[in-house]
Design brief:
Structural class: alpha/beta
Order of helices and strands: EHEEEHEHEEHHEHEH
Strand content: 15-25%
Number of domains: 1
Shape: globular
CATH superfamily: NAD(P)-binding Rossmann-like Domain
Helix content: 40-55%
CATH architecture: 3-Layer(aba) Sandwich
Distance between the termini: 19 Å
């Protein structure tokens, strides 16, 4: 398995689930910085330019699946800058992998409320929608994960200061929120399990909302 964005909140949750999985022999993370995790199954590729993978074809060939969890908060960003990361980074990796590993699974972490029409008023939703639509045209088994509210587990914290404060306040309420909104609140563990299950067995839909992600996670357990 190949993971992009394994130092982020969702990506780290996915990485931990991969490392726990007894069937996986090798997990490779690719990003600008180290995960800080030391495990016999984990290999890290440190790479600065996430728009250019020239000369890396051999290192990125032979993977059964890619989990693309890299992202950034859109607050305060201009659309061109946000698109450079959310669309540009994603497509640079996906287009290369579609040539090197055609037909393999590619799971993209999008977001609840993504705009598939690409014409809505919400900037981030348009960009995510454009990214999803482009991925679905590639010769990959591409799946779009649209989680809503995410509960970090295993000591994971968001890299965004505002989100960290938000989670610090809501932390004690998570048990109540899970019971009240079982199909809207997902944990980082559930998202990781769902990704593994979808990569291995596929899913009936290519776009998975929170309810679908929960279902995929439960069927994997």
């Amino acid at each position: 398995m190949l993971i992009f964005g394994a130092t982020g909140m969702v990506g780290r949750g996915v990485l931990l689930e991969c490392l726990r999985d007894p069937e996986l022999q090798l997990v490779v993370s690719l990003g600008r910085s180290s995960t800080g995790i030391h495990d016999r199954k984990l290999q890290e590729i440190l790479h600065d330019d996430l728009l250019d993978y020239a000369g890396m074809e051999e290192s990125l060939t032979g993977f059964d699946a890619c989990f693309f969890c890299l992202g950034i908060a859109s607050a305060g960003m201009k659309e061109a800058d946000y698109a450079r990361i959310s669309y540009g980074y994603t497509m640079a990796a996906a287009e290369l992998l579609s040539r090197l590993n055609p037909g393999r699974a590619f799971v993209f972490v999008s977001g609840s409320g993504t705009d598939s029409s690409e014409k809505g008023r919400v900037m981030w939703a348009r960009v995510k929608g454009r990214t999803e639509n482009a991925l679905l045209k590639l010769p990959l088994q591409a799946y779009m994960f649209r989680p809503g509210f995410i509960e970090p587990m295993d000591g994971i914290q968001s890299k965004t200061p505002l989100y960290r404060r938000f989670y610090a306040v809501l932390g004690p309420l998570f048990p109540l929120l899970r019971r009240a909104f079982p199909n809207q609140v997902l944990s980082t563990r559930q998202i990781g399990r769902a990704m593994l299950n979808v990569a291995r067995r596929g899913y009936a839909e290519r776009i998975l909302e929170a309810r679908d992600i929960r279902s995929a996670a439960d069927s994997a357990s």
